[in-house]
Amino acid sequence: MKKSIFLLYFICAFPLFGKAQINLVLNPSFEVYAHCPDGADEATYANYWTTLDSSWRAPDWSHDLEGVPEYCNICSSNISASVPDNQAFYHYPRTGNGMMQLQMYHDQPDHSPYDRDYLQGHLAHTLEEGKTYSVTFYVVHEHWEAYAIGHIGAYLDDGTIDTTHNPEWTQSQYTPQIVDTSVINDTTNWTKIQGVLTGDGHQRLITIGNFYDLAHTNVRVLVDTNGSYAFGGAYAWYLVDDVSVIDCSNVPFAGNDTMIHPGDSAFLGPHE
Question: What is the DSSP letter of 152?
Fold first, then answer.
């Protein structure tokens, strides 16, 4: 009597067969730029990336824009935008030549309300209603900062959040669909922040930052070996790289359950 072998084809979360996964974020690792950055507050130099506003200037720092991330790239020789040797850190991008620098916390909002940077990127197309999407980006904490925080997140919408009304104030009226509440203080290794959301038929932009006020931000004070504050003062700064939004709603199909005999063969995967 022939013995039979039962094969159950099962593929989980990420399909081995079927459609390739396409990242909907345009210029996801900030490689393509209109101009090589030559100073601070130049997030818009990276193609398809902007900030919530680029015109506000704090009265006590009138020479600087506030609430605007720094675009850092190996092409730059300016210490505010250079990689890896920068005035605020020594670090390479996770991939490629470019990354962004965001201020995500300031412990004195009454003294300086311009205490948050928000980075906004464009998607290749609007997220489809009912479909499931995986959202991922990577952060690393900068050296010499006084604080490390949790609650770093991403908010996807149709552009409603894009306002010219003091966007540097904490955007606590918006709840990010993707958020990591754990305190991220690793200054060497990139930390993945990832989650899933359901498209609503309107989301076409992704905004990254800290959307929580001081009372609801998970904060850790960092001290040096002498028990004093680290170099960076009253802030928490992070580098950001490799942003992705991927449709993961398609259920992979690897073929029907099949009974075969020893010595027989079976095709694994969908027939075109």
Answer: E
The per-residue pLDDT for range 14-67, each reduced to its tens digit, is 444 445 689 999 999 999 999 999 999 899 999 999 987 654 555 444 445 567
Question: Which residues touch 73 (CB under 8 Å, ≥6 apart)?
Answer: 30, 33, 36, 37, 81, 83, 97, 98, 99
Residues 6+ apart with CB under 8 A from 115: 103, 105, 106, 108, 109, 168, 170
Q: pLDDT tens for residues 73-90?
A: 999 999 999 999 999 999
What gap in Å lies between CA 63 and CA 84, rounded to an integer? Answer: 25
Within 10 Å of residue 80's Cβ, how many Cβ atoms?
19
Angstrom distance (rounded) from CA 80 to CA 89: 10
Single-letter residue type at 233: G
Q: Report the C-alpha gap between 139 and 187 in whole angstroms.
A: 9
* 7/231 Cα distance (integer angstroms): 60
pTM across the whole model = 0.80
Q: Is 43 helix (H, G, I), strand (E, B) or coil?
A: helix
Nearest to 170 by CA among 84, 112, 245, 130: 112
- Identity of residue 170: T
